[in-house]
Amino acid sequence: MKTPELILLTGERGCGKTAWCLELIRQARAAGLHPAGLVSPAVFQDGVKTGIDLVDVSNGESQRLAVKRAEADPQSSIGADTLSWQFDADTLAWGNQVLERLRTPELLLLDELGPLEFQYAGGLAAGLKCIDDRDYLLACVVVRPELLAAALERWPWGRVIRIADRLAESRRA
Question: How many domains does the chain divide into?
């Protein structure tokens, strides 16, 4: 059996990591592969990021993962919130179930594993186990630059791909 490969995709906020993952999914399907996992596209309202969805890559099912703290219901806090975002406990539980049901995907995508997973063993913690178990052919995990060292310590076999900041590149052009 082929050794599983791991890509750690990193870049600053807003640089296009999720768009990169969505394009990888599109190309994988066009090649006849069956990608699985979770992506978390931003939700915009009037040009402002107001939420984050969680999408099951295999079937397109989507649930609201988080809302901006200013719009969040203070009574629904689950203890996994950040200063800016309030996460939905039911959506996190659903996302973990999606990941726990995976069986040797050809392409596994996890967008993203962040502070909730690496620092608090919460969030989509089943994603950490999926990568630890190496039960995939190719996995692509989105990791923030500030958590890249922790990801490489946990998964030293991972290959890093950095996405440049689109805004910085457009200023240089």
Answer: 1
> Which phi and psi (to 5°) does residue 105 adopt?
-70, 150
Predicted local distance difference test score (pLDDT) of residue 77: 47
Query: What pTM does this model have?
Result: 0.87
**Residues ≥6 apart with Cβ < 8 Å to 86:** 66, 67, 68, 69, 72, 73, 76, 77
104: domain CATH number is: 3.40.50.300
Q: What span, in angstroms and rounded, lies between the C-alpha atoms of 64 and 155?
A: 29
CB 110 within 8 A of CB 138: no
What is the mean predicted confidence (pLDDT) over 43-48?
Answer: 93
pLDDT (tens digit per residue) in 69-120: 865 455 544 445 456 889 999 999 999 999 999 999 999 999 999 999 999 9
Separation of alpha carbons 64 and 66, rounded Å: 6
